[in-house]
Structures are given as structure tokens and as C-alpha cells.
């Protein structure tokens, strides 16, 4: 069976499930767009986790039924969503006061590059992509724990966990944990190096070493 | 004091001039003051600086003013999903001051509250902090950001009473509340105007002091950027 390439490593859903293991009962959490959004599908049964949407809502519900779609009720990715009995709404200044004031426990974000010192770049590619940073700079500056979920290498095969970011930064020395399709890296504080703490199924330490240019502790 | 005007054009009468700064509410296409944007477009006023989280999408919301080249400079956090914006920016025809979303909201809130500047950790060590004063508090570095004072604020509410007290609806509140406070004058458009006394004073989102003029903008055909739904399970 030619499935080695497929069964090795984690899929997008499995990366999200791995990130969900970092959730704790009672956490208030902000999830970025893309793979991070999938974390919402992996909240353990019986655990209360409240999702914040930075456009002004606590308690994001599931996508609405067709007949419940409301243009006034969207998430930060501009997708239609629903509310929960426990939800609340507020304006953007109050929303970012929560984020910048250190009241959000955890955020999961995508990234284009992460450096070995915990710098993250995910908002622009000069001359190519100019979408803007949205709330990402506020999240990495204010949330208690920052988890990055990203593919280990770019489409060209280049390492994305690197010695020094080459793209404009979103935040400097802010990342606590990196979950890729191959491995998990973590550091206990912002003065320590990242440590390889987990390998995805079928992935070896040697393979991670080969595909990573950042320095980390094994 | 009559705050209710019969059209967006009359509500903006005497307020528009070339080179002015406008703060606008809305997030994506949610809660955008579309009647007022249309009237600004029709007025032909130009060289505008607009503080707004987004720039609408192609030919919707503030995207309309980009298309007619009435905007000189945007102060925004996110401008994806807008090809004309991208074209003008890359061609050097449009200036953009990329501002983190929370910094933008706080710049409006601070401007409206008489606070000319504030320190934040957001953006420290990034392009956003370049050329700005920084200061260390309790061992951590912060960057100085300026409050925004606009010549005009344009916002969209759900319900207003005749005194100008406003209530927003769900996530359409977003930047409307902070934007309303930071303009020298704020013009609001709403979906419904009710008599004084019909709104619970404990449930007002934006007190009337901020709203100087308003219009009934209904009926609205609210646009959705990404319609995402789930299926009902079969009974």
C-alpha cells in the first residue's frame, strides 16, 4: 500500500485536535482563521470553553441553520454563525480591551513563519499580499498563551520554523507552542528555547531535524 | 432640537469638505452605514482620509468610494477581499496606514474620550511601531499610539429613539460605538426610530450625546460575505 505519505504526520483536523488538548475547563479562547477554526470541533465533551470573536462576541455558537442565517451575526472571518444562551455582544473597543488586557486564556493562530525566539510573521508578504494584520497583533501581544498551528514546511519545502523571520513580524517573542503536521514544540517561558515534545505518528526525530532550520532542544 | 433628517444627503449638509477625515463604523459588510456612504459618494467630496476597520469589498460599502477615487488615505486593519483596493495600493494611488484592529478601536475610543495618546504592547517590535515613541513600564516595552479625532463620524444603528439614543444589534455593533464618539459630529443611520421612552434607559448602547443627526435608512438589504450553514439532522 502506497499510503506512507498519507498516514505519516497529522492532517489539518488532527493538528486542530492536538491544539484542542491544550484547552482547559473554563477557558476563554480566540481562534484564528483556517486550521485554528477547526479546534472548535474538538472541544472535549463536558468541558466549558467560551469562544471569543474579536468583532464583538463571547460565546460563538455553531453555523446557523439555513432559516436562521442573520447578516448581523458573523464571526471575525465574516462567516455567518449562531448565538448561545450564554453569549454576549460588545463593541470593538471592549472586545480588544479583553484581548489586550490579558483576559483571554488562549489563542490559536496560523503563521507563515515562526522564529526560534518565538517571533511570528503572518500578516503580509511585501509586494504580494496586503490583507493586513486584523486582530493578530493584538492577540499575540495580549493573550496569555499563544499556540501556532501551521504546516511544517512551505509549499516549496522550506522550513517555516526558522532562525529569524524574513517576513514583517506580527509579534516579537510571543509564541508559546508550535503544532505542525510533523511535531509539537513548546517552551515554558519567553526566555527559554523551544523543545521538541511530541512527534506525529510515523515521524522521526531525524526527519524533524532535516526539515527544521530553527534551533530547538530535542 | 430636531435630530431626525429626511435623507442622508440632508443629514450630511454642510459637513463635507475635500481633505476631511471620516471615522466609519462596520466590520466587513456588517453594520456599515451604507446610506451615508452612498450620499458621500454622490456628493463628490474627495481626498478623504477614512478610519475604518475594513474598506468594504469591491463596490460595496467603502469600496464604492475607492472605486470613484474619492479616498486618499485609509486607516484600516484588514483590506482583503477587495481587488480595487489592492490595485490602487500597489499602484501607489492610495495611502494605507495599517493599524492593528485593537489599536484602531482604542484610537477611536481614546480620541472620543479626550485622550490624545496611549501606550500599548500591540505592535512592539513590528513595522507598526517604526518611528513611534516607546516606553518601558514594569520591565515591558510599549508603543505610543495616537487617539483619532475625525471631522465626521458615520455609523449604523439598529434602533434609535427620537432623542438619538442608539441600540445596535448583535455583531453589527463592532466599530460603530467607538467611531461614533471620535468625530466632531456624528451622523447615524438606523433601521427604526421609536418615540422617546420606548427604549429601556438601562439598555442604551450609545447615549444620545454622541448622535447629532440621524436618518431612517430602512429598508436594508443586508449583504453577507460568507454564508455558512449547517444541515438539520433528519427527523
Polypeptide structure, described:
The complex is a heterodimer of chains A (218) and B (235). Chain A is an alpha/beta fold and 218 residues long. Helices cover 18% and strands 22% of the residues of chain A. In chain B, strand 4, helix 4 and strand 5 form a beta-alpha-beta unit. Chain B has 235 residues and is α/β, with parallel strands linked by helices. The longest helix of chain B is centred in the middle third of the chain and has 12 residues. Chain B has six helices and twelve strands. The relative contact order of chain B is 0.18. In chain B, helix 5 packs across helix 6. At the A-B interface, helix 4 and helix 5 of A face helix 4, helix 5 and helix 6 of B.
Entry keywords:
heterodimer, A: 218 residues, alpha/beta, 9-stranded mixed sheet, 6 helices, 12 strands, 22% strand, B: 235 residues, 20% helix, 26% strand, globular
Short description:
Helix content of chain A is 18%, strand content 22%.
Amino acid at each position: 500500500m502506497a499510503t506512507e505519505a498519507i498516514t505519516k504526520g497529522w492532517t489539518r483536523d488532527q493538528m486542530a485536535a492536538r491544539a484542542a488538548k491544550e484547552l482547559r475547563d473554563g477557558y476563554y479562547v480566540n481562534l484564528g482563521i483556517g486550521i485554528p477554526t477547526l479546534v472548535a470541533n474538538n472541544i472535549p465533551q463536558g468541558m466549558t470553553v467560551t469562544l471569543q470573536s474579536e468583532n464583538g462576541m463571547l460565546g460563538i455558537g455553531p453555523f446557523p441553520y439555513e432559516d436562521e442565517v442573520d447578516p448581523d451575526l458573523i464571526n471575525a472571518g465574516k462567516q455567518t454563525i449562531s448565538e448561545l444562551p450564554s453569549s454576549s455582544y460588545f463593541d470593538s473597543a471592549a472586545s480588544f480591551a479583553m484581548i489586550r488586557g490579558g483576559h483571554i486564556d488562549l489563542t490559536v493562530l496560523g503563521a507563515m513563519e515562526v522564529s526560534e525566539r518565538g517571533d511570528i510573521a503572518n500578516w503580509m508578504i511585501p509586494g504580494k499580499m496586503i490583507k493586513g494584520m486584523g486582530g493578530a497583533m493584538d492577540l499575540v501581544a495580549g493573550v496569555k498563551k499563544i499556540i501556532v498551528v501551521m504546516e511544517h514546511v512551505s509549499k516549496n519545502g522550506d522550513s517555516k520554523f526558522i532562525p529569524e523571520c524574513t517576513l514583517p513580524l506580527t509579534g516579537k517573542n510571543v509564541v508559546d507552542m508550535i503544532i505542525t503536521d510533523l511535531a509539537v514544540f513548546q517552551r515554558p517561558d519567553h526566555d527559554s528555547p523551544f523543545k521538541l515534545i511530541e512527534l506525529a505518528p510515523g515521524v522521526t526525530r531525524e526527519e524533524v531535524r532535516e526539515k527544521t532550520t530553527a534551533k530547538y532542544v530535542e | 432640537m430636531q435630530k431626525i433628517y429626511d435623507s442622508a444627503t440632508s443629514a450630511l449638509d454642510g459637513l463635507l469638505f475635500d481633505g476631511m477625515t471620516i471615522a466609519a463604523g462596520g466590520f466587513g459588510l456588517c453594520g456599515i452605514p451604507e446610506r451615508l456612504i452612498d450620499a458621500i459618494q454622490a456628493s463628490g467630496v474627495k481626498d478623504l482620509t477614512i478610519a475604518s476597520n475594513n474598506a468594504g469589498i469591491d463596490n460595496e460599502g467603502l469600496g464604492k468610494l475607492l472605486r470613484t477615487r474619492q479616498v486618499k488615505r485609509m486607516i484600516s486593519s484588514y483590506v482583503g477581499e477587495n481587488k480595487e483596493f489592492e490595485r490602487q495600493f500597489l499602484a501607489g494611488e492610495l495611502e494605507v496606514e495599517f493599524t492593528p484592529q485593537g489599536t484602531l478601536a482604542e484610537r477611536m475610543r481614546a480620541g472620543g474620550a479626550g485622550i490624545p495618546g496611549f501606550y500599548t504592547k500591540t505592535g512592539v517590535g513590528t513595522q507598526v511601531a517604526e518611528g513611534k515613541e516607546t516606553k518601558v513600564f514594569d520591565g515591558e516595552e510599549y508603543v505610543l499610539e495616537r487617539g483619532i479625532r475625525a471631522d465626521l463620524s458615520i455609523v449604523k444603528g439598529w434602533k434609535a429613539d427620537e432623542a438619538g439614543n442608539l441600540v445596535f444589534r448583535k455583531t453589527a455593533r463592532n466599530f460603530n460605538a467607538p467611531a461614533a464618539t471620535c468625530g466632531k459630529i456624528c451622523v447615524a443611520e438606523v433601521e427604526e426610530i421609536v418615540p422617546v421612552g420606548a427604549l429601556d434607559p438601562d439598555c442604551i448602547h450609545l447615549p444620545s450625546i454622541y448622535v447629532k443627526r440621524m436618518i431612517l435608512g430602512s429598508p436594508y438589504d443586508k449583504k453577507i460575505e460568507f454564508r455558512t450553514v449547517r444541515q438539520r439532522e433528519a427527523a
